[in-house]
């Protein structure tokens, strides 16, 4: 089969490789769609993560079950599925506390195990979630990033009627916007430099959008909300959004960091000490795939509005990673395994 393998920064190659062996309790999936994630971009731009122990990328993917291993009881060939990439150990202290996303002994598809930027993948039965009849399979590739957004909102202090700001309107930012809207935020302010992404944010329910180069985002947010939002989310991961996000929340509010960072930030702790604002992080998700599948299947979160391109596997570098690096109009790019 063909698969996209990463060997270092700016070094991804589509190569022939063997199909992973089907084991007991596992299913063989013909991959239909796989999404390029922000964390994939981090590895492409800055080099591979220490957790990577094999080269086949791709942890946001959906497909069709073509063969089942011994002991599989809930899956049948022909089932359309979304794959949850995280495999928690189930035994460490964090797993026992119900925080499988923070498992200290985890593994995962696309990192330590062969991922979804390949024609076929073998996954554990419990990591494959059936898609309901009539749900577009390409939306299955958005279940994983949508779960990241939904988890962040659930972990935040946001309540019905609260105000929210989202810094960055890439895939996670736009999914956060929809999750915040579904949670009942009364005002949703999106801060984004791209004209196209700001327009998309308005289309998806933002009440206000701000270009942070042309306007003072913090000042505008405070004017719009009478002193700052209840919760701000960082979905960009750069110095400017961190500083603005911390300053944009009301006294006692929350700044929730969802993005991954290539560089450390410098800031004054006085910015939240004097306001008793909270800075919190959100990482991955815990037991959310069934709920997120329903949100996407029923259009409560519109995944199609986030997808900007479908590309063949052979063009994953030029039309995928390089396009995302250079073209701010792009948002979620999916590799479509049916294209050639």
From TrEMBL:
The keyword Oxidoreductase applies. PROSITE patterns: ADH_ZINC. SMART domains: PKS_ER. It holds the Pfam family ADH_zinc_N. GO terms for molecular function: (R,R)-butanediol dehydrogenase activity; diacetyl reductase ((R)-acetoin forming) (NAD+) activity. Coiled coil: none annotated. Its cofactor is Zn(2+). It comes from the Bacteria. Its EC number is 1.1.1.-, 1.1.1.303, 1.1.1.4. Keywords: Metal-binding, Oxidoreductase, Zinc. Residues 8-335 form the Enoyl reductase (ER) domain. The keyword Zinc applies. InterPro entries: ADH-like_C, ADH-like_N, ADH_Zn_CS, ER, GroES-like_sf, NAD(P)-bd_dom_sf. Transmembrane segments: none annotated. Belongs to the zinc-containing alcohol dehydrogenase family. This is (R,R)-butanediol dehydrogenase/meso-butanediol dehydrogenase/diacetyl reductase. It comes from Paenibacillus lactis. The lineage of its organism: Bacteria, Bacillati, Bacillota, Bacilli, Bacillales.
């Amino acid at each position: 089969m063909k698969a996209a393998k990463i060997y270092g920064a700016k070094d991804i190659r589509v190569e022939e490789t063997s199909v992973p062996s089907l084991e007991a309790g596992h299913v063989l999936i013909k991959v239909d769609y796989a999404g390029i994630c922000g964390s994939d971009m981090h590895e492409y731009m800055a080099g591979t993560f220490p957790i990577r122990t094999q080269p086949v990328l791709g942890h946001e993917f959906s497909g069709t079950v073509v063969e089942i291993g011994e002991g599989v009881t809930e899956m049948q060939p022909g089932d359309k599925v979304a794959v949850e990439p995280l495999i928690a150990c189930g035994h460490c202290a964090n797993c026992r506390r119900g925080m499988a996303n923070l498992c200290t002994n985890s593994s995962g598809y696309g990192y330590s195990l062969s991922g979804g930027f390949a024609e076929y993948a073998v996954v554990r039965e419990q990591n494959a979630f059936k898609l309901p009849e009539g749900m577009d399979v390409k939306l299955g590739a958005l279940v994983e990033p949508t779960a990241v957004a939904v988890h962040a909102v659930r972990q935040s202090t946001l309540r019905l009627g609260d105000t929210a700001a989202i810094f960055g309107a890439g895939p996670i930012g736009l999914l956060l916007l929809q999750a915040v809207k579904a949670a009942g935020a009364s005002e949703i302010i999106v801060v984004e430099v791209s004209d196209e992404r700001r327009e998309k944010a308005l289309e998806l329910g933002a009440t206000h959008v701000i270009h942070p180069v042309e306007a003072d985002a913090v000042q505008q947010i405070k004017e719009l909300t009478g002193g700052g939002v209840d919760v701000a989310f960082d979905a960009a991961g750069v110095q400017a959004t961190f500083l603005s996000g911390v300053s944009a929340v009301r006294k006692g509010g929350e700044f929730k960091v969802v993005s991954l960072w290539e560089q450390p930030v410098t800031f004054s702790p006085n910015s939240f000490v004097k306001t008793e604002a909270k800075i919190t992080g959100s990482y991955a998700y815990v037991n959310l795939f069934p709920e997120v599948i329903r949100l996407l299947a029923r259009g409560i979160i519109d995944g199609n509005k986030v997808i900007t391109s479908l590309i063949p596997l052979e063009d994953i570098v030029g039309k995928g990673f390089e396009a995302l690096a250079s073209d701010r109009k792009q948002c979620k790019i999916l590799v479509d395994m049916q294209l050639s």
